Amino acid sequence: MTQPTAPVAPPDRAEIDAIIAAHSGLEGPLLPILHALQDAFGHVPQAALAPLAEALRVTRAELHGVISFYHDFREAPAGRHVLKICRAEACQAMGGAALAEDTLRRLGLDWHGTTGNGAVTVEPVYCLGLCACAPAVMVDGRVHGRVDAARMDALLAEAGA
Amino acid sequence: MIVWVPMDSASKAVGADEVAAALLAEAEARGVTLDLRRNGARGMVWLEPLVEVEIDGVRHGFGPMTVADVPALFEDLSAHPLALGPVDELDWMRRQTRLTFARCGVIEPLSLAQYRANGGLKGLRRALGMAPGEVVAEVTASGLRGRGGAGFPTGIKWQTVHDAPGTRKYIVCNADEGDSGTFADRMIMEGDPFSLIEGMAIAGLAVGATKGFVYLRSEYPDAISVMEQAVRTARAEGVLGLDVLGSGRAFDMEIRVGAGAYVCGEETSLLNSLEGRRGVVRAKPPLPALSGLFGCPTVVNNVISLATVPVILEKGAQHYADFGLGRSRGTVTLQIAGNVARGGLFETAFGISLGAVVDDLAGGTASGRPVKAVQVGGPLGAYMPREKFDTPLGYEEFDAAGGLVGHAGIVVFDDRADMLVMARFAMEFCAVESCGKCTPCRIGAVRGVETIDRIAQGDGSAIPLLSDLCETMKDGSLCALGGFTPFPVMSALTHFPDDFAQNREAAE
Ligand SMILES: Cc1cc2nc3c(=O)[nH]c(=O)nc-3n(C[C@H](O)[C@H](O)[C@H](O)COP(=O)(O)O)c2cc1C
Ligand code: FES
Predict the structure, then answer these.
(1) Shortest Cα distance, chain B CAs vs residue A67, angstroms
(2) Is the pLDDT of residue B204 over 70?
(3) Residues of chain B contacting residue A130, judged by C-beta atoms under 8 Å apart
(4) The domain B325-390+405-411: what is its CATH number?
(5) Which residue did the predictor score with more confidence, B347 or A6?
(6) End-to-end Cα spacing for chain A
(7) How far is it, in rounded angstroms, from Cα B472 to Cα B198?
């Protein structure tokens, strides 16, 4: 999916071109290409912008406008694991805000921050559709519900935070 | 031994995969042949992971299952500490009218054979024997209204696209489900994906579109994976493609993944996103029905709207229309969430009161404390106090009570909720998610947070400012993000003034 799970290889021009070519026949290919680039490299690499702009006949500025609009796309790699904590209402009703605050405080991070050892980036997310088993979090595309402090500890330990 | 363990992401989130692995290991250790099937979820999330064991052809429930309770499933089942009895006879199941969700939790989601054996594809077959205009008329007669939030009559939208000139038309399924407290779209996509595919194919036949897109939020990796597999299967089995069920008529579809923007649930913003642009809202007119995706006539419908179409065609418009209240026909797929003893999906005819949902179905709060407020309809829906609990679930009825049915998410808060904090969150969320195109939303939301912070610091003179700001956002915003954020904010202020009082610390 959209979450990087492992350290990623430096962007390789041939791979970038292959990803662009594989999707350019789609109707509205830009988002699928950006997702594919991010899946491959953990972010949308700078090196992809020129070939992408050329292939889709858009300006670099337009491209930047699109990439920066969406919360998902990163212009630099995240930590080895991405922990998304739901901040939305149903999770708040079950103590989600305190869970998020405690987690950030313990890791010494703000939202979007990455632990010093590069293990975990913490992102806010607004609903994971797990609102009947709140509070909910997602680690690299795996969902967890009814998360309490102990469960969070275990998840962080597993991720090497 | 036939055992069912759900593969729904809510089930997985609370350990269904671990339970499934433990079942396999235990069966092997005991030399028992285990036929382990992965169904969608029934919707009783408080009982998840809900394991079902077939006994004489009847599925008996056991839950919430833990790995430690797995070995006892191989002993005397009637003595199992988590035994619930036959699943279909549980109160929660018996009291529902399951039309849209009839198969969800019952079948293996990716088995087209089980889908067919349980009524699947009957609606599409019937539609193939009808003229396009007749299919549209059937949907109109059912009274189905858009389940994505606005409640616009689906048949009328289809009629516009049907009548629009043009040979290239599209069906776009809005699977962005960004509202907190909602998960019906996710559940049906994970638990009965072919119903959405069938609904989209019927929509395509009805309006003359041969291509569909599902715009599915990236926060739902499990739903994405199930839908992608289901589309491949449907194509391989001739449900999709150039020759739909051998009719000679074409319809195909693609799954497209969103990129984490709430506003892309707004239909015009969604279309921009599909086209590969920034997800900013388009001014209307033109309506997407006339000039939508790539400028072509486009049906944009919510997942539940589309997934309900097959049963309408299968059972007939009247069958569907016979359920409901006033102008809200058919069933509402309630999603009961937040601080509740029993949360999950409950499909029932429109007309049930909010209080019956909260006090009876949900069984009050999980914490056991009094209910303070209920937010219905997602982050743009009002907070309803107990005084409004007699409001029946219906579009007009909720509107008259200052509320919003929206996508029918119901989020319950206990008496520890600070409604000033919730109002501030509504503004903050709007600020984070605003597409930036219109000033009342983009700037208003930021000012809203600042103004609520002043109130929190004891500046009562900021309260009228907040009301004025909300009026400006309501009147001047381009879409319902800025236009409806005032509803949670003002309902919090109106119904829970103590939380905004100058001496709020003392009041607590
Ligand atoms: C900010 C905003 C977010 C929305 N999010 C969704 C959504 O996630 N899913 C959805 O179906 N409709 C959403 N809508 C409503 C859509 O604009 C549109 O009304 C709907 O997709 C039409 O389908 P329906 O008639 O089947 O409900 C949203 C609207 C706004 C203003
Ligand atoms: S509100 Fe947190 S998962 Fe829905």
Answers:
(1) 8
(2) yes
(3) 9-10, 13, 183
(4) 3.10.20.600
(5) B347
(6) 22
(7) 43
Contacts of B45 in chain A (CB under 8 A): 132-133
pLDDT over 90 percentage in chain B:
98
Angle between helices B462-476 and B486-495 (to 10 degrees): 150
Structural domain boundaries in chain B: 2-94, 112-321, 325-390+405-411, 419-507
CA of B266 to the centre of ligand 1 (A): 5
Q: Which CATH superfamily is domain B2-94 in?
A: Glutaredoxin (3.40.30.10)
**pLDDT score for A8:** 54
For residue A103, give the amino acid letter.
T
Q: Over 90: is that where the pLDDT of B299 sits?
A: yes
Please tell me the predicted confidence (pLDDT) of residue B502. 72
Q: Report all structural domains of chain A as residue ranges with CATH numbers, in order of start.
A: 13-69 (no CATH), 81-159 (3.40.30.10)
ipTM value, please give it. 0.96
> What's the whole-number average pLDDT of chain B?
97
CATH of span B112-321? 3.40.50.11540
- Give the nearest ligand 2 atom to A125 CA: 2
* pLDDT tier, A11 (very low <50, low <70, confident <90, very high otherwise): confident
Assess whether pLDDT exceeds 50 at residue B389.
yes
Tell which residue, B238, B212, B242, has the closest CA to residue B227.
B212
Span B419-507 CATH architecture: Up-down Bundle (1.20)
